[in-house]
Protein: [FeFe] hydrogenase H-cluster radical SAM maturase HydE
Organism: Clostridium sartagoforme
Amino acid sequence: MKVKEIIDKLYLENNASFEELLFLLDNLTPTDKVYLVEKAHETRMKTYGNTVYMRGLIEFTNICKKNCIYCGIRRENKQADRYRLTLEDILECVEIGDRLGYKTYVLQGGEDDYFTDERMIEIIRAIKDKFPNNAITLSLGERSYESYKKMYEAGADRYLLRHETATKELYESLHPGASFEERRECLRNLKEIGYQVGAGFMVGLPNQKNSDLVNDLLFVKEFEPHMCGIGPFIPHKDTPLKEEKGGTLEMTTTMLALIRLLLPNVLLPSTTALGSIDPVGREKGLKAGGNVVMPNLSPTSVREKYSLYDGKICTGDEAAECRKCIEGRINKAGFRVEITRGDNVAWAKENGYHKVTKGNIQLENIKLI
Ligand code: SAH
Ligand code: SF4
């Protein structure tokens, strides 16, 4: 078995076995890595071209009832300065976002019981009333089937719920009191309801082995999410994992490239966490197959408080600055921003969304009825 042959197989067949993926991770040389990234880039060029989709991230609450041991806003972190945004705050972010060209808003937060279904429905409807053609992505953790359904019916389009790790023992060691099966059940429910669903995992968790990462790759291949969020684990000073080492740029970009090869159509963010461990981390993620960025739209007054990990970038920048900075970086890396909802290509096709372009600029993903 040769690593290059496995990469060629991944490129041609978008598949590989557990043994092949493990062999690849255990034996990948710097030369192989260059080849892997090249093939992931070619694959992305075939499905999404050189475009990058933007999502405006609104971190609307850092109050959380869960206690994930890696996370800086976990329940037991008494140092965290807690906040919630009001409906008006959120709408203000959305309006600024629309003007800046963000046609998707990601509402992300801790698992905060204050945000009942009724309150979430009110927020979702208020955004959709103002911007019916823009997309809403939710990322609020685990909720019941009925809750997910109500929010979908109110107008939410997508849901991000990373599976975090596909190895049961590792999952349980990181999530006291939480259930590995229930998280997966949530992902299945979201898909069944009709959301575009994002799974995903952290790279470089304490005690995570290459075989665990292969479990992640194969879980994502099998579940076939519309999106996949992959970022390095970064220790947070007020958590039990504060002394641990974090994930590396190299390992994270390897995972991004492999996911692009396994699922050519997937929406693949080059994450803020990657940009936080390396000054050009996001650019490297885009070059390894990433096609989405999620700049921050939260009010600057709360950015520092939404502290999942140490060293988060852009906490002092206004939304407009982030917007300008990210476009400059994207262009410099050889890509271009596309101002659209940025749906998964396969999903858009199935659901009757068509690209409307003027010259070489795509204007909108329009639903033709
Ligand atoms: N509460 C929701 C959404 C907010 S957390 C949820 O957990 O799904 C969003 C993501 O941040 C998590 O899925 C996790 O993968 C990531 N995250 C949390 N702490 C982190 C850390 N220390 N380093 C890197 N990523 C982290
Ligand atoms: Fe809460 Fe999400 Fe952090 Fe877990 S990762 S403690 S659910 S915010």
Notes: Residues 51-248+265-342 form a domain with the TIM Barrel fold (CATH 3.20.20.70). The chain has a mean pLDDT of 95. The first strand starts at residue 51 and ends at 54.
